[in-house]
Each structure stands twice: as structure tokens, then as C-alpha cells.
Amino acid sequence: MASEAEILDELRRLRARVPQLTGALAAGVDGLVLAQDTPGVEPERVAALTVTALGVAERMADATGQGDFRELLVRGVYGYVATYAAGRGAVLTVLAQDRVNLGRLLLEGRRAGARIGELVDAEAAEIETETETETEERSEATASAKAPPRTTTARPRTARAPRTTNARTTTES
Question: Model pTM?
Fold first, then answer.
């Protein structure tokens, strides 16, 4: 996946733009943490819960005809948990205090999700291209390693004369 350092930089920039954020993490859609800045929170647990919520949110959006998943917002007594689509292969989850400017949270979360999505998708495309190139090279190597097919020139066929038997004739003396 994308460089952890690049994603972590984006998470830190997001936290700088929205000071009321208490944490941020990027996870793959498989639930693995790509990068995290979540002091006091277990990132693996949050990533796993994020992917679970993502599945429910995607089904809800689909069942109600709202289209592809974009974001999910949960408000608790002490603040917000917001999850954003980050390209095809990742999600961004941010934790915010209750006094956060919600409009700012949504705007900056969407921007950060888009940027992280670009990083993750670019890396995935690069890996896919490398894999395709390696597969083609292996195919070419395998094809050239095989012995070339034997080519034989066809000999023209000529009709043969029917065989005759040498019959002995006896002469009477």
C-alpha cells in the first residue's frame, strides 16, 4: 500500500487544520491499519470497527438508492467519529471533540480522504502494473524457453505402381 509516512503526514496535516480532532487513522478496506495518529485509542480495534461500520453503511446506501458510500458520521456524548471513503482501497476515520465545527470537520475530512485515496490507489495501480509486467515477462520467458516446434517439409507423394508378383512359368521339356 501507500507509504505509511505519506499517509501519516496527511493525518497530521488534517489534525493541524482541525484542532479539535483527537485522533485520525487510515485503514485498508480489509481492516489493516495503514497509518494512525490516535493517542489513547487502540488503532487496530478502531480499524476493525471502521470496516464493520463501512460494510453496514455501504449496504444502507445501496438499499436506499443513495449510491456509493462517501462518509459516515456518528455522534456520541463526548464527540464525533467520522469515516470517509479514501479511494477504492482505504477509509479514513477521525475522532473529534463535541465542540468541533461540524462543517469544517466534514470539509477537511473529505479532502484528507481524497488525498489518502489518491496515495493508496496510486500505489495499488503501481503494484498492479508491476505484477502485469512480471507476468508478461514470465510468459515470454516460458515461451522462449520451450523448444521451437519442429518443422518438416512435406514430401510430395507420387503414385506407386501396383506390385506385381513374379510368377514362375514352367516349361515343359
Answer: 0.71
One-letter amino acid of 2: A
d(CA 5, CA 162): 88
Adjacency order of strands within the sheet including 90-97: 33-37, 21-28, 90-97, 79-86, 71-76
Would strands 71-76 and 33-37 be described as parallel, antiparallel, or unpaired?
unpaired
42 Cβ neighbours under 8 A, 6+ residues apart: none
Please write the tens of the pLDDT for every residue from 1-52. 458 899 999 999 999 999 999 999 999 999 999 999 999 999 999 999 999 9
CB 47 within 8 A of CB 25: yes
Rounded-to-5 percentages of helix, strand, coil across the chain: 45, 20, 35
- DSSP letters, 108-133, are HHHHHHHHHHHHHHHHHHHHHHHHHH
Which triple of cell numbers denotes residue 91? 477509509
pLDDT in tens, 145-169: 665 555 556 666 666 666 666 555 5
Backbone angles phi, psi at 48, to 5 degrees: -65, -45
The residue among 77, 61, 78, 71 whose CA lies nearest residue 108 is 71
